[in-house]
Amino acid sequence: MSTAQQPLHPSLDQIASCVSGYDPDALPVASAQQVIRSFIRPVDSVEKLAIRAALDRVLAADIISPINVPAHDNSAMDGYAIRSADLDDKDVSLQVVGTAYAGRAFSGDVGPGQCLRIMTGAIMPPACDTVVPQEFTRDGNAQSVTIPAGVVRAGDNRRFAGEDLAAGSIALAKGKILRPADLGLLASLGIAEVPVQRRLRVAFFSTGDELRSIGEALDEGCVYDSNRYTLYGMLRRLGCDIVDMGVVRDEPQALEEAFRSAAENADAIITSGGVSVGAADYTRHMMAKLGDVCFWKIGMRPGRPMAFGHISSGGRGAYLFGLPGNPVAVMVTFYFFAREALLHMMGASPAPLPLMSVVSSSAIRKKPGRTEYQRAILSTAADGSRSVSITGAQGSGILRSMSEANCMVVLHHEQGQVAAGDMVDVILFEGLL
Ligand code: AMP
Ligand code: MG
What we know:
By secondary structure, the chain is of the alpha/beta class. The chain has helices at about 10-15, 30-40, 180-190, 225-235, 250-265, 285-290, 325-345, 400-405; strands at about 25-30, 45-50, 65, 75, 80, 90-100, 115-120, 130-135, 145, 160, 170, 195, 200-205, 210, 225, 240-250, 270, 290-300, 305-315, 315-325, 355-360, 370-380, 385-390, 405-410, 425-430. The chain has a five-stranded mixed β-barrel. Strands 8-5-7-6-9 form a five-stranded mixed sheet, with no helix packed on it. Helix 2 (about 30-40) runs parallel beside helix 7. It starts with 11 loop residues before the first helix and ends in a 5-residue tail after the last strand. Magnesium ion binds near residues 273 and 325. Adenosine monophosphate (AMP) binds next to loops.
């Protein structure tokens, strides 16, 4: 089940030495992403699934089209299939020799001066190269029809065999996450089953003696553990199998047991809390003891402290993401570090998250030298113009503003103050598919 250990793998130190100006105590977001990308290896395990069950899964091999789609040249419209040589610069009248329906071809010939009534999707007779849509014609009856001058050009409204997919070509590439259109495409090829990567198994737990689980009494100074629920949601959306290990006390033995069990049973481990410098806990110590882990202070807001690496136990191992404890910091570090890494582990080839450039309706304070992710609301005015405004307090513990937001404004590493009316980059929370 678990990923292979990492003997063939360069160590984090070796990888970090390739990152120019690497400083774990002041690491730009892009450099941290680069180290993670170089360190992560995909999990190599494939299963075959019926195409419906393969929705949102990662394709494990190229799918080669076994057939041409469509199989024949056919009509894109209801109308008349004609020989374009018969067209003239004045109206022409053609003799109708029969009708072709979708799934029911016409078997006769279409000679000069003749045409065939044809329905959308019906096979084009070999002699014809053009379809005149029904609504452009005049005086049509069972015997003849008039084609007014200039209503079509040669080749119009004909679909070619294989124009959707040619036999022998790659219909879907390995690494693609299968979306609804892909299921349809596979069905159009008559393919019933596809090889997909097995689901990634991700274990997670929260650390912190102040944390209480739902249902427990909230003692003085304590908070309910919300991170396990946000992580559950984000991991489910990513299509992972999840192992919720609960809250682990800040105590060496409990932590060691939790890390070992996670390393033995999962491909990746996500923890929250206990990675900041002053943290009075054993989490950092235990991560370092069990594997190759680096501790970063990332030039970002929210989410500065983070641990990343690989830990092992009993001959098995898992990648580790030690996310900060603050609820918004957990989400931001998950989205901008763990998400892409987990997709790579799943064998997917994720495209960079699309950014949209939008007018900021207010000024935003920002210092160059760190990346900021500000929770925001993108709205569209009655005149159709779009603008974005940040959702008030941006403290990394304020989860409400994350819940109210529909996007984040990404203020890049080198970027400085934003004035009202400036364009800013925005990343949307919801996509179409
Ligand atoms: P830490 O990174 O452990 O220093 O935690 C930073 C802040 O996040 C503290 O205020 C914690 O109480 C809070 N925090 C840590 N873990 C969680 C959690 N699982 N759910 C909610 N808040 C948390
Ligand atoms: Mg803590």
